[in-house]
Amino acid sequence: MIRAIGFQNAKVHYSLGMLLLMISSVATAMQPMFVGQITEAFAGQKPVVVTTVLFLLAVFVVDALGTAGSKLVMGIASERFVFNVRNSVARRILHTNHRSFQSFDKGDLNNRVVEDIPAIQRPYFTTYPELLGAAIVALLCFIGMVFTSWTLALVLIAVLTAFGALLLIVLRSIRTAAETSRVAESAYSSRLYELLYNFVPVKSLGAENWVLRALNRRAESSRVNGVRLVGVSSLILPIINMATQVSLVGVLLLGGVQIGNEDLTPAALATFFLYLVYMISPLVTLGLSLGELREAAASHARLQVIYETLPEDETQPQYRFSSGGPGATFRSHNLAYRYQGGERVAIPDISIEGPGIYCLVGSNGAGKSTLFLLMNGLHVPTEGSLSWNGKRIHEGLSSDLRRFVYLMPQSRDVLSTTVRDNILMGAVIEDAEIFALAFRLGVSNFLEGLPDGLDTQIGHEGVELSGGQKQLLYVFHALLLRPPVILLDEFASNLDRDSKAAISDALTELATESLIIVITHDKELLTRFPRHITLG
Ligand SMILES: Nc1ncnc2c1ncn2[C@@H]1O[C@H](COP(=O)(O)OP(=O)(O)OP(=O)(O)O)[C@@H](O)[C@H]1O
């Protein structure tokens, strides 16, 4: 499946690359034959045939051009492969349901996309072509050897079979070592992610050394596993070296004996030896490539897990929510949600009639944020039921439901893009409407003071916004889109008095047609919006 995704629009380049590679490999394997003929002419003190020399030069050129051309088109195809798979995995991650997404560690997920995808393209674009080229050269050289001296060729087979068996045992251990090494690297990446995210608290608590020690422990585990992998992989080359040395010595000794017995001519031994030398480099490539294949298999398995454990979210909801005029109604019955860690959050039976504004209150951990996630379908109830406008919510409805119920979560950050993109998040709304809203909220100065207006870049390459300015942008989205239901989790915690009052006015106006539920601990807002729903 991953292979089919990766090869979209890359097959033509790939096939051309393979063809060029095969041509250059045949050209390589023909060289000993021509060199052998020239050597025999020298040895027999006969004139060298010009066409043989010309053929030798021609195969040199074809070899060089074929190798370079093949590398180029394969490179183009491999970049396309990585691009395709990255897009597909990112799509799967963003389209999966919330519960499956939560089961993944974010650093680990990042590591799989950034590291494992380039790792899995290697077999197709480097290893298999190398294997094919090596196999063609080795096979043709071997045929040449059989025709030169079949007894020496038999000895060679015996030696290579013995060392081949040894190689297989090593290759099996490489796959296991590669898997544990990738897991350790991901664990390091996850920890690093968390710590970078918490840079400010770490610095202000003076916890740099404590954090470094935690990071070092993961780095140490990654190092130990890396060493283990390098350790097993490093056995490949000595095995191949030994195999070639034993082959070379064996052929020379046995060939010498055969020459003594007049079963073989010195020129034939020279040609056989030449074939063997030409065969050695492909054999080394073959051994090393097989090792790389085992490492890539480990990465492939990690990516496969993403496709298997992140199901694609529903694309065609069977039921379309519509506000059907003002007044969304919500009901819950025996509702509970159990987190994967085992925490069970029970929600009392609730009945809410829109439009209007309600405050959702309760102590820390009472389940307010959990209820919001259930209300907009990101969490699917593990017990009981909930319904909007009499329609019971189940998993298949969630994507349509989220267009009906807008949720602004408690923890959110701006994206490194323009102010306009951060406000709209893909929605199509005229700039004039954004400025009109800013004017109504009394925050025009904020938007007009930005260096490039709505095109101002936010993030490390642009301006930094204050916590309150960020919250303004998040609330803008809801006020502009005016969805039938709006859930705001602590929307005002960083807003100044004036902004809070202006947004509250705007929400009150919006609440004539929409149902707005606000999670807040703010006394002013609790007084202003007197209808409360209490949890816990
Ligand atoms: N991702 C999670 N995995 C496991 N348990 C969770 C998760 N998120 C919340 N919980 C648990 O669910 C319970 C309810 O949490 P929730 O965030 O809904 O409370 P809350 O009322 O919004 O709290 P607060 O006012 O502090 O934001 C808590 O006991 C919390 O530990």
Automatic annotation (TrEMBL):
GO terms for molecular function: ABC-type oligopeptide transporter activity; ATP binding; ATP hydrolysis activity. Keywords: ATP-binding, Membrane, Nucleotide-binding, Transmembrane, Transmembrane helix. Residues 330-535 form the ABC transporter domain. SMART domains: AAA (SM00382). The keyword Transcription regulation does not apply. SUPFAM superfamilies: ABC transporter transmembrane region (SSF90123), P-loop containing nucleoside triphosphate hydrolases (SSF52540). It is found in: Cell membrane. The keyword Nucleotide-binding applies. GO terms for cellular component: plasma membrane. InterPro entries: AAA+_ATPase (IPR003593), ABC1_TM_dom (IPR011527), ABC1_TM_sf (IPR036640), ABC_transporter-like_ATP-bd (IPR003439), P-loop_NTPase (IPR027417), Type_1_exporter (IPR039421). Pfam families: ABC_membrane, ABC_tran. The chain crosses the membrane at residues 12-35, 47-66, 131-147, 153-171, 227-255, 267-290. Residues 16-295 form the ABC transmembrane type-1 domain. It is a multi-pass membrane protein. This is ABC transporter ATP-binding protein.
